[in-house]
Each structure stands twice: as C-alpha cells, then as structure tokens.
C-alpha cells in the first residue's frame, strides 16, 4: 500500500481514540445491539474527551481544526474496532456542519456547544416512506404562519431518530408546488406535534437507532429555519460530497477489516491436509481484494486531500462512494465464502461484517444513483477528453 499522510498529531489522536473505543464503547456494544440503540451517555463521554465534534471553532468548544483527516481517523478506528454502528460521525460531521454552512451565528451559538459536548444529539431527516432516492418526491410540507412555520409530514429510516434532540428536517415550502422548493427546519425534542414512531429492526448496524418520525402541525419558530427558505434542496445537495466522502472512508475501513479477518482465518483453518491459504483460489481471491483495497485507499486519501483543499467535487465523491461501498460488500462476501460454514455463524466476526455491509450500496445515494451522477458528468457535451487536459 502506498504511504498515507497523517500528521504526528493525527497519529496520536488515532491512538487516543482507539483507547477510548476500547474502554468506553466496545464493552457496551452487545447490549446496545440488543437494545437497538446506543446509550446517550456514550455521546457525553465522547464529548467530554474531545472526540465528538473536533472541527468547530474553539468558541463553540471544538478544536477548531477542520482537517478532515481527524474525522477519517475516527471513522476508520470505529470500523477496525468493529463498532461501526457507534456511528458518531453522523452527528459530528454529517449533520453538525449544516449549522456553520447554512445557519446563523445565533443558531451556531445555541446548538454547537451542546453538540460538541454530546448533550444535544443530531439527525437529518430527508427520506420518507414514498421518497428516498427521489427526494423531490417528498410529501412533507411547511407553510408560513406569521412568526412561525407549521410543519406536517413523516420521515422514515432516520439514523439517530430516537436519540436525536435536534433533527434537521427537509420539507416542501412552495405553495405553487415546485418540487425543488424546500426548506430545512431545526425540529427540537419536545416541540408539540413532533413524535417518534418505531425504532426499526434491521439486518445490520443494529446499535444504530433508525426510526420513523412524525410531524403533526409542529409550530417551528422562524429562528429554527436553517438558511434561506426555499433553498433546502440546494443545501442538501451541497452537503452530499462530504456525506459521500464520510461514507467512503467508513466503507473502505470496514472492507479492510474483512480482509484482515479473512487473512487470519485462512492461515489457521485446514482442509485436505493444508491451510486454506495454500489453495491458489484463496490466494487469488485475497490478492484481488487486496489490490482493490489499496487502489481504493489511495483514491479516498486523495479525495480527503482534495476536500481539505476545497476541491472535492460531488462527482469525484460519488466515484469514491460507488467503489468503496461495492468493495465493502465484496470483501465481506469473499470473507464469508472463505470462512465456509463458520462465516455464517454469529460467533465469527466476518458474519456481522457481511450483514453490516449490505446497506453501504443503498444509503447516502444508491450505487445506481452514483452511476447516474458519474455518467451525467462523463457523457456531458462539455466533457474534456483526458488527453487534452492540463494536469
Ligand atoms: C440504516 C439506514 C439509515 C438511514 N439513515 C438515513 C438518515 O439518517 N436520514 C435520511 O434522510 N435517510 C436515511 N436513510 C434512507 C436512505 O438514504 C434511503 O434508503 C436511500 O436513499 C434509498 O431510498 P429508498 O430506500 O427510498 O429506495 P428507493 O428510492 O425506493 O430505491 C430502491 C432501489 O431502486 C434503485 N433505484 C432507485 N432510483 C434509481 C434510478 N434513478 N435508476 C436506477 N435505479 C434506481 C436502486 O437500486 C435503489 O436501491 C437510511 C436508510 C437506512 C437503511
């Protein structure tokens, strides 16, 4: 694998986060998986030790270092520790930046310090029972009524849906029904008419609460409108490059772990008088996945560098999401196959790697949606042929 460029500070941060996971998260995971939800206390603990939201400015309680590699470390370590369903990054880096990107100073002051400390847990709610990939098909609506808005509708599959104290909710706000005219609202725990439905039972990622949310005539003060009314769809699209980069780091780290688990297993397990690792099929499978992992890692690290430089495009992030999510599924699948029957047993780690992986190619934009984005770009009339580019 090519060298990776983490700073000394980031390497120390990695060691510290690994220790945090070992002492504060790993021991509770089985209980949380059975409960279908992580204790709120986990967010507090992470907040206390400076691992929850590292990027906000010091005045909001963060480290003030926007280098994405800190989050990459957090994402990777969670995957390596097999606690990817302690998905703190959703709170920290997927939803948190909505406040600084689109919110007012007053909103940042009101929410960010509590988010950094873990007192206020965040979620983002776009998906509805009838609208997932096609967000413009959503039915939730909000109408202006004097000094507030009135929100109606429902959302589903919302991560942190039960734990969340503040949910960024997208709703249509154009009385003339322009499907892209949406507004983002900060809906807070306890607002009248805001109710939670079931914490949904899932194939994998079991400790992550994924829930239904209902909004019945919820009065939202204007101070809780995020950014400009009507621009919600554009805001959601703007966040997607970062969201897909976050995803890519996690999918790849999980794939790396599947490879390691498989490598250990095939050297131990014997069949026909020799280790599984001695069969050429095993060697070729491991070589194939190892190569794809190393190539993908270089691309993802380049994407992180581009993101830090403000140069990551939505299309390049889509490529990272597509390749890494497919690779997460493949690495887990190859791993289960090479584990034989053991791979189907809960007591072997590869089994959960497989069920946890399956969502990767679906959420945060399915593989098909990624291909639409990429093909639109590379088949566009103004596509620049590779051999005419200046690098
Ligand atoms: C565990 C989990 C956590 C989630 N967390 C959140 C969250 O926090 N917030 C949130 O808002 N949402 C969340 N989601 C929702 C998730 O983003 C959606 O499930 C996803 O966008 C797909 O939408 P859908 O399920 O409605 O599938 P659909 O849109 O019905 O698509 C089904 C399938 O059809 C195919 N397809 C769709 N469109 C096309 C097309 N144009 N061309 C070709 N094929 C196509 C794809 O194979 C796709 O997988 C979560 C989902 C899960 C399972």
UniProtKB/TrEMBL annotation:
<feature type="domain" description="Acyl-CoA dehydrogenase/oxidase N-terminal">
    <location>
        <begin position="7"/>
        <end position="119"/>
    </location>
</feature>
<dbReference type="Pfam" id="PF00441">
    <property type="entry name" value="Acyl-CoA_dh_1"/>
</dbReference>
<dbReference type="InterPro" id="IPR009100">
    <property type="entry name" value="AcylCoA_DH/oxidase_NM_dom_sf"/>
</dbReference>
<dbReference type="InterPro" id="IPR037069">
    <property type="entry name" value="AcylCoA_DH/ox_N_sf"/>
</dbReference>
<dbReference type="GO" id="GO:0016937">
    <property type="term" value="F:short-chain fatty acyl-CoA dehydrogenase activity"/>
</dbReference>
<protein>
    <submittedName>
        <fullName>Butyryl-CoA dehydrogenase</fullName>
        <ecNumber>1.3.8.1</ecNumber>
    </submittedName>
</protein>
<dbReference type="Pfam" id="PF02770">
    <property type="entry name" value="Acyl-CoA_dh_M"/>
</dbReference>
<keyword id="KW-0560">Oxidoreductase</keyword>
<dbReference type="InterPro" id="IPR036250">
    <property type="entry name" value="AcylCo_DH-like_C"/>
</dbReference>
<dbReference type="InterPro" id="IPR009075">
    <property type="entry name" value="AcylCo_DH/oxidase_C"/>
</dbReference>
<dbReference type="InterPro" id="IPR006091">
    <property type="entry name" value="Acyl-CoA_Oxase/DH_mid-dom"/>
</dbReference>
<dbReference type="InterPro" id="IPR013786">
    <property type="entry name" value="AcylCoA_DH/ox_N"/>
</dbReference>
<feature type="domain" description="Acyl-CoA dehydrogenase/oxidase C-terminal">
    <location>
        <begin position="230"/>
        <end position="377"/>
    </location>
</feature>
<comment type="similarity">
    <text>Belongs to the acyl-CoA dehydrogenase family.</text>
</comment>
<keyword id="KW-0285">Flavoprotein</keyword>
<dbReference type="Pfam" id="PF02771">
    <property type="entry name" value="Acyl-CoA_dh_N"/>
</dbReference>
<feature type="domain" description="Acyl-CoA oxidase/dehydrogenase middle">
    <location>
        <begin position="123"/>
        <end position="218"/>
    </location>
</feature>
<keyword id="KW-0274">FAD</keyword>
<dbReference type="InterPro" id="IPR046373">
    <property type="entry name" value="Acyl-CoA_Oxase/DH_mid-dom_sf"/>
</dbReference>
<dbReference type="GO" id="GO:0050660">
    <property type="term" value="F:flavin adenine dinucleotide binding"/>
</dbReference>
<dbReference type="InterPro" id="IPR006089">
    <property type="entry name" value="Acyl-CoA_DH_CS"/>
</dbReference>
């Amino acid at each position: 694998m090519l060298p990776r460029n983490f700073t000394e500070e980031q390497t120390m941060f990695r060691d510290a986060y690994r220790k945090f996971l070992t002492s504060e998260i790993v021991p509770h995971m089985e209980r949380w998986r059975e409960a279908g939800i992580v204790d709120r206390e986990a967010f507090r603990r992470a907040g206390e030790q400076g691992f929850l939201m590292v990027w906000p400015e010091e005045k909001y309680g963060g480290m003030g270092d926007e280098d994405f590699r800190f989050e990459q470390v957090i994402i990777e370590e969670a995957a390596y520790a097999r606690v990817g369903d302690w998905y703190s990054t959703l709170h920290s880096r997927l939803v948190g930046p909505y406040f600084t990107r689109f919110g007012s100073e007053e909103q940042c002051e009101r929410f960010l310090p509590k988010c950094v400390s873990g007192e206020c847990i965040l979620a983002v709610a776009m998906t509805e029972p009838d609208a997932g990939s096609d967000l413009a098909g959503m039915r939730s609506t909000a109408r202006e009524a004097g000094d507030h808005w009135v929100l109606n509708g429902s959302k589903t599959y919302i991560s942190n849906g039960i734990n969340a104290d503040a949910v960024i909710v997208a709703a249509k706000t154009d009385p003339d029904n322009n499907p892209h005219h949406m507004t983002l609202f900060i809906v807070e725990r306890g607002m009248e008419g805001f109710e939670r439905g079931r914490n949904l039972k899932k194939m994998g990622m079991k400790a992550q609460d994924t829930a239904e949310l209902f909004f019945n005539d919820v009065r939202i003060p204007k101070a809780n409108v995020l950014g400009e009314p009507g621009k919600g769809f554009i805001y959601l699209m703007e966040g997607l490059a970062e969201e897909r980069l976050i995803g890519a780091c996690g999918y790849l780290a999980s794939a790396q772990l599947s490879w390691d688990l498989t490598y250990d297993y095939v050297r131990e397990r014997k069949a026909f008088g020799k280790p599984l690792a001695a069969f050429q099929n095993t060697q070729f499978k491991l070589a194939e996945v190892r190569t794809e992992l190393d190539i993908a890692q270089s691309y993802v690290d380049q994407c992180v560098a581009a993101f830090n430089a403000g140069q990551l495009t939505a299309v390049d992030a889509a490529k990272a999401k597509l390749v890494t999510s497919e690779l997460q599924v493949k690495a887990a699948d190859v791993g289960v196959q090479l584990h034989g029957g053991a791979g189907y047993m809960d007591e072997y780690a590869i089994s959960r790697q497989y069920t946890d992986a399956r969502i990767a190619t679906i959420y945060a934009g399915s593989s098909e949606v990624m291909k639409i984005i990429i093909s639109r770009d590379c088949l566009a009339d103004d596509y620049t042929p590779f051999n005419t580019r200046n690098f």
